[in-house]
Amino acid sequence: MTVPSYAVDLAARLIRCESVTPAEGGALDLLQRTLEKLGFSCYRLPFSDEDTQDVDNLYARYGTAQPNFCFAGHTDVVPTGPVEEWTVDPFKAEVRDGMVIGRGAADMKGAIAAFAAAVSRFLDAHGAPDGSISLLITGDEEGDALNGTVRMVDWAMANDQVPDMCIVGEPTNPDMLGDMIKNGRRGSLSGHLVVTGTQGHVAYPHLADNPVTRLMEMLAPVNGTELDGGNAHFTPSTANVTTIDVGNPATNVIPARAEAKFNIRFNTEHSAASLQGWLEEHFDRVGGDWQIQWKANADPFMTDPGPLTDMLSAAIIDVTGQTPLLSTTGGTSDARFITKMCPVAEFGLVGKTMHQVDEHVDVADIEKLCAIYEAFLERACHGVTG
What we know:
By secondary structure, this protein is an alpha+beta fold.
């Protein structure tokens, strides 16, 4: 029987921690013990407020000098869905056919394990870094993200723990390890639009005011459309209606109320405020009685190509032979908070099965990712070039 490597064994042990958001599940405890054995100073950072559940977080640092290189990630995972649809226990971390199967394998306990193993190998080979290495690990990425990375960033900035650069271990690769580095993300803006009219009989529409008619006209600019042509770093901004609700079971009654929700993924050609102003002017032109609730989930950001992306790309080429694409596609991540304090890029495992039944990653990819992180550390923290 093949004995699993340090990285694969740690990934499996992390997966066995049932850390479905916001539960810690023992994952941060395990990681803290692992890092303390390597010589890290660890700080547990629980955050909460009166409207949200407690969330536990972990900040760990080896050394005190600058530059400070940070790895960021999350140990919380999404729910399993129907367990009976899995071919294995989702929290057993079974290794089968060269794959580690379990909830969080790809997103993103495998990457956390790979980084911890990379640090262990780096310290064995080189000793203390020229500077310091830190980890910023939250238990609140898959949830509302109110008491996780956003609060940890505030803490780091208030406690002289600001890193010089950061890699987030999200599963960025669409097909194979080495495909893609995320050096930015689009913003996200959601709207909940409610239009009020007057109920009446469909045979006498002049006696009613149909809110559905106005709602459909109001939604035209956000109904599966591109809002711009994109730019040098971002694809076009897109807008999509996600639900329309009237709650009217009758075919001969004009309803009194209609509502819809939509989401806009926008690039740096826009801001949440500019999009809100544009759409509210449009709603006013359509007219009638309407109300909207906005939720700005994230602003767009981009880390310009430079030392961080150059060193990370070189490490990926060393291990895989592939030149990764710099991309800003996809959804939001906690990098949107980290960008406020330092340059940030994302690189992790292949993300094809994240959040799916039988989520899995290739054992060999965990090993390669560990080697990539180690090669990056050699460049970032020990002056290795090439």
